[in-house]
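chain below, 118 aa
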Amino acid sequence: VHLVESGGGLVQAGGSLRLSCVASGSVGSIYDMGWYRQAPGKQRELVARTTRGGSTNYADSVRGRFTMSRDNANNRVYLQMNSLKPEDTAVYYCYAEMRERLSRYDFWGQGTQVTVSS
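prediction:
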């Protein structure tokens, strides 16, 4: 599975950005997809994660401001980020979980930088 993100950039606090991720390869074996982020000096953390059936879990820090959506027909996920705060500044990574038989595999995109200025 190959993941490619797009849509990052620089935005002022209170602004919005929309991230996109497209998956290719063995997409039929993808189950969960999600967005994670990593700020300088911090561990990578969950932002939002959705199951194949569309059930989505959000980090408390973004709930109510961010919305994740999934387009299974086109192997895409999106992250709409509103009311952005400087603390949202991080590299955002697209994630996909592939399952084959009894094995699970994690795949990551290359990351896209989101910078929120105060």
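The first strand starts at residue 2 and ends at 6. The chain has a mean pLDDT of 95.
thats it, cya
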